[in-house]
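Bumping with the actual sequence this time:
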Amino acid sequence: MRIDAHQHYWKIKRGDYGWITPDITKLYRDFLPNDLVSHLHKHQIDQTILVQAAPTIEETLFLLELSNQTESIAGVVGWLDLEAANLKNQFEKLRSHPKLVGIRLMIQDLEDAGTVLQSNYIDALKYFALEDVPIDLLVVHHQLPILNQLLEKVPGLRGVIDHIAKPSISSHEMEPWKTEMSHIAKHDHIYCKLSGMVTEADHSAWEQKDFDPYVHHILNEFGTDRVMFGSDWPVCLLAASYDEVVNVLENALPDTLMIDEKEKIFGSNARRFYKLGDGEL
């Protein structure tokens, strides 16, 4: 089974997508399952992981309702306020839905990334670690030292780094991202999504060679058992089509990879990480 481990749907009129403004013309419209289905069929993608795009429980509920109607949605990664006093009660309500497969922590959007090292965040993540709940970690490359400290405090966290931690691909910078990701990879329960790369490159002038060293480093450090393909559609449309995103990763993979290793990257790793088909969280 081939899985796109990171994509989004949204309805603009819902009103909680503050980052999608009218001046972002490529994204300022509704994107729903019918818009993606032809791309999935073309690339033999059987199912997707639908990831939240707004920091509200209401949007998570909207995505879960979409998943009720859409067979291709294997699971939903939702949002919770980790500082909320009733966090556990809110989570228990969400986890009753069979397609909730995880929660996303949006460190990227915090004014001070160090906030995640406060006791309320640590306690919440220790709870999720104890419950073995998959956590998507949205970070920018300069926040990786904070993330590494967080993982030291919550060593059992089942986490996946979104978008290879958004390195500065447009300026071809490898360090300190390269060293920091090597540190992160030492945590056995942490995976990495080979996603969101085209939007970190020059949107109008990227080349295949821009991505290769980043993909190779992730594979070298995480291995083929802890990485997964994600399109980041429709955000990727700012820089590339769905076809181009798939091609970028396929062309960046080393020729030495075996068929079963590619199958892991394009499906089975996501299935294992998100415990698809294994019952409730």
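The tokens above came from a reply further down the thread. The two ends are 21 Å apart (CA to CA).
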